[in-house]
């Protein structure tokens, strides 16, 4: 097993344990806000 494969496996394991980056969270909350405003204005 070469060093590159070990490093890639380590990076993959770290990225799996790490929570999603903040820009993903903010974009999803922005989408929720947009949907909320859309439903509020349509009703």
Automatic annotation (TrEMBL):
The highest taxon in the source lineage is: Eukaryota
Query: Which keywords describe this protein according to UniProt?
Result: Membrane, Transmembrane, Transmembrane helix
What are the TM regions of this chain, as residue ranges?
21-40
Q: Does the keyword Membrane apply?
A: yes
Q: What is this protein called?
A: Uncharacterized protein
Protein species of origin:
Rhizophora mucronata (Asiatic mangrove)
Traced from the root, the source organism's taxonomic lineage reads: Eukaryota, Viridiplantae, Streptophyta, Embryophyta, Tracheophyta
């Amino acid at each position: 097993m070469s060093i590159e494969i070990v490093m890639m496996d380590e990076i993959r394991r770290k990225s799996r344990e790490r929570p999603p980056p903040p820009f993903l969270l903010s974009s999803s909350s922005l989408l929720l806000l947009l949907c909320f405003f859309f439903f509020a204005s349509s009703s």
